[in-house]
Predict the 3D structure of the following.
Amino acid sequence: MDASGGARMNCDVVILGAGPYGLSAGAHLRNIRGLEVRVFGEPMDFWKSHMPEGMLLRSPWAASHLSDPNAALSFDAYSEAKGEAVPRPIPLESFVDYGLWFHKQAVPEIDRRKVARIEPSSDGFRLILDDGEQFHTRRVVIAAGIAPFARRPAAFDGLPTELATHVSHGSDVRRFAGKRVAVIGAGQSALESAALIHEAGGDVEVIIRAQGIHWLGWRARMQKLGPLANVFYSRFDIGPAGVSRIVAVPDAVKYFPRSVQDGFRRRALRPAGSRWLIDRFKNIRVTTARYVESAKPIGEKLQLRLNDGSSREVDHAVLGTGYKVDITRYPFLPAELSQKVTQVNGFPRVGYGFESSVPGLHFLGAPSSWRYGPLMFFVCGTDFAARRLASHLSLVKSRNGSK
Ligand SMILES: Cc1cc2nc3c(=O)[nH]c(=O)nc-3n(C[C@H](O)[C@H](O)[C@H](O)COP(=O)(O)OP(=O)(O)OC[C@H]3O[C@@H](n4cnc5c(N)ncnc54)[C@H](O)[C@@H]3O)c2cc1C
């Protein structure tokens, strides 16, 4: 029996998650001499299993690199190593393959088991894995993404998955061939799913609350202004003119009043579709300024009643209704631990090294955007996050040994 209550001390840092943030963090932390790091999770799982087949990335090339200490494992390096040009916009399968290549180069030893539970212990945390094995670590870096945060409007509560699914639910749109499908939402994943279902032979109607679809891609259109475009837009192309430049520097975001920071997040993350989808929307019905008030199963169909009193009978509703960060929904965080994390509207308050109010518990990716802004929702935030985490942990290590 040791001070931790029985589990053997296994390492200094556990990274929970092997998506873009976990892989990048792993690549940087492995570089810290004497720091024992273990990464858990199925590499690129969210991208492999929760995105529609045939999807193209919304982010431009410059915003789609994972991060390693020597900047040697960029998308360009991958493309060169493969000896083939990657099309642009980047297809989903190329991005997944890039992530897996990055994993093999930068963080080859990944434990693919799931972490079922994190418990605090006297000198760190006890991790319980899905096969029951227990593990002890001084620090945990949660890089578990947004999958548990999928937002479902209340009208769809209790419906079976045969009738209504969130876009993050399934990847094969071919099952909708010959079916009537309502796609709810006006963000990239809703709009792209609608295009893919239409192209797969589904009869699609997109239902959105707004007066129209907001199309992204102003930076590309301003490219004709040459370097002037860079005055307004960063290379990551997140957010509208001006905002795009500010949010590209995550350290700058916190100097703005809270209400302005919230405005940055709203404007940078507002529902919108990539401009290259416009042509694919020519034959897709879009109903604007409407929302679903109720959804009822009628035999094998689903009846949707909209706020104008009209109704639709469909085979399936696809909910492209976004994600709302709420760390209490991470299934591996028990209430006694999540309650100790100081939170604002579901976001943990994180400090300089992405550390929460619970010492040794760090959050990367979307949950860290309360402090570091909307970049943290995207792959392009990995470089800042992984470098900052590594510099923080090397400082702590040189101050306290491995603690
Ligand atoms: C449809 C869609 C399209 C998108 N397109 C883009 C885009 O073009 N460009 C862009 O920059 N961003 C895009 N995003 C946002 C994207 O989700 C993030 O950029 C990115 O996935 C963040 O990486 P992450 O590592 O935080 O999370 P994830 O990629 O979700 O990775 C989290 C990992 O943690 C693992 N995990 C979770 N729980 C556990 C557990 N208990 N134990 C072990 N492992 C666990 C998961 O298996 C997963 O592999 C898109 C999102 C969606 C939904």
